[in-house]
Amino acid sequence: MSALAIVLAVAIAAAAVLIVCLPFLREPVAEDDRLDAPTEEDERRLTLAEERDRALGALKELEFDHRTGKVGDEEYRELVGPLRQSAAEALRALDRAQGDEP
Amino acid sequence: MADLGRAALVVSFGLALYALVVGGFAAHLNRRRLADSARNALVACFFSTVVASAVLASALLRHDFSFSYVAAHTNRTLPSIYALTAFWGGQEGSLLLWLLVLTGYGALAVALNRRLLRDLVAWVVPVLGGIATFFSFMLVAVASPFNVQTAPVDGAGLTPSLQNPYMVAHPPMLYLGYVGLSIPFAFAAGAMLSGRTDERWIVATRRWTLAAWTFLGFGQLLGAHWAYVEVGWGGYYAWDPVENAALMPWLAATAFLHSVMIQERKGMLKVWNMVLVALAFELSIFGTFLTRSGVVNSIHSFAQSSVGGWFLGFVVVSSVFSVALILWRLPLLQARTKLESALSREATFLYNNLLLVALCLTILWGVLFPIVTELVKGESRTIGRPYYDFFLRAFGLPLLLLMGIGPLIAWRRTSVRALARSIAWPIAAALTTGVVLIVAGAGSSRPGLIAYSFSAFVIAAIVVELVRGTRATGSLFRLIGRNRRRYGGYIVHFAIVLLAIGVAGSSAYGTNVERHLSPGQSTTVGAYHLTYEGVDPIRNDPNRTGQYAVLHVSGPWSGTLRTGNVTYTGFDETDNDVGIKTDWLRAQDLYVIADFQQRSNVVFFNVLVKPLVNLIWAAGIVFLLGAVVAMWPDAREQRRLVLRLAPARA
């Protein structure tokens, strides 16, 4: 092994160790070392937000499908009511959940 | 410098192992700094792999034959660009490219998502670390590209068929696709390991999946064109096991890209999506196993060695891991909604998924059949082209039809009356096309006729959809801008139609004539008249010897065509260098293969006229365009997602 190769190999290994240790060098003592994982409350809000986006998306799709003729007037009237209702419920549920925030 | 490369790979292995073990430990124990440290290890693993790759690339360009790998895959007369492509021309270099792409992708994916999805990334790091550990272990302990020897005067050279401009781009493109499928797999596994199976992993990997799928699809088309111009048999896809190995994960990923939309819109098919992501990843590893193991005969298996057993072991272990994870998290993956109607957009996506997976699995069975018969009966039996062609028609033609029907059906449900109104124009287009083709005398091939009629149906459906959408929004650009993923998808559908027309045209309506000709003699093929003028030997080329037959062509195109036999320095085998003249107006090729007879001035010519074959290559460009439109970032969607994820970060 040539001297240059040894020097370069040691440099790579040292750089790797430095990068791996960086979080501990930057913050030798952590006040809070937990991963900021979502709490149960966060997860519930996330689920509600997904439901809200789905409901609003479905409503938007229905409007577009109606305007492009894929959904007839009669079907549109049948479908739009329940969809609006579920979108409103999802929005209310999310508002309630966000209102519960400390 | 081989020692430097070896040392860099050892460092890569150590870092990947650290990301796997410490990353898993940190995620399990909920330790932030340790998780960040494991993430940094994955990023550092990429940089040490870059160093190893630079050492190998430098040795290849310098023709440093003290590297066994360089001596085995290059020689002094090899042009620099092909010396560099020898990086992926052999076993060890290919594995290094796998690791380089994997760690590059992995480092970028975790870096981009480290703030928004910290809890998820903490579990993604050990999964990516596990995959990187396997590949770096292979490079350190089983197939090192840095083995050294006493340098010979010259090297063995690069396999002649790899000395083609397409091979500069085709293998890296396929690797970008194969390896790219590791990212959605790692995020899906991370979601299941963490127990957070909401949509965040899908949002994080949507573009990664699209990018990997695009690379894999475009890479296959490049490979098909390479086979067409280089292998010299007049075809572009032979259902070779290695070709199939790239097609199978692409089909699984295509199914996933469709079914994931149902999960996003309806919260359904969560288990199915996990299965598809795992299937696409496992098939990508299985494809590498097929290419590298030598268990199947293939013109594409340029490197064969003992790594096959290791890969098979990895496929088994990672498959068991995936199945166990899905079974463990089944309660979290239950859907809360149901399919409302069999006549809905989501139902057509489901039919499309079943057909895609059925096609994928029948191809898998065709690939496995020789291995299974070898194991069971002691003799390998190969499944031929008729098997694949039958299932391509059985599953491919309904898929083509669904591509036209799907966009015309509304989400949730559609009445038969509304559907009939929507598909009236496409049906008229399909029937008109069929009748015109029969009247024009092109009704001899039933599959060809069906493919063309269905293609007309799909094109008309896309046009109807664009016209109606433009009317509804007031502008085509606004329409596409509002839903790039959907309209990018339609462009990709159009590319698939071009592909279908090209495949049907070139295979069902082609002409093939074989003739022995002496100088001065002529033959007529279709509208072309060819006269063999004489031989033109290769002169002053240190890398190649051989000769070309010179033909004068008249007809739709007039000029000179050269086709010959070439032998590359260091290799005994002779390759066909085919003569191709493209008529862009008709999208057809005049394709001539010459076979020189020993001790005779008579040359055997195989002349093919391949109508519409160039639509296949044009499809590649359209496919890329569609994929770029679908991947293009949408600021409104990004804002919406950040808002949705905000509570999870709070």
Précis, in short:
The complex is a heterodimer of chains A (102) and B (650). Chain A has helices at residues 3-26, 40-67, 73-99. Chain A is an all-alpha fold and 102 residues long.
What does this structure look like?
- The complex is a heterodimer of chains A (102) and B (650).
- By secondary structure, chain A is mainly α.
- Chain A is 77% helix and 0% strand.
- Chain A has 2 domains: 1-31; 38-102.
- In chain A, helix 2 packs antiparallel against helix 3 (73-99).
- Chain A is elongated, with a radius of gyration of 27 Å.
- In chain B, helix 2 (32-61) packs antiparallel against helix 5 and helix 16 runs antiparallel to helix 18.
- In chain B, the strands form 2 sheets. In chain B, strands 2-3-4-5-6 form a 5-stranded antiparallel sheet.
- Chain B is an alpha+beta fold and 650 residues long.
- Chain B is built from 20 helices and 9 strands.
- At the A-B interface, helix 1, helix 2 and helix 3 of A face helix 1, helix 2, helix 6, helix 10 and helix 15 of B.
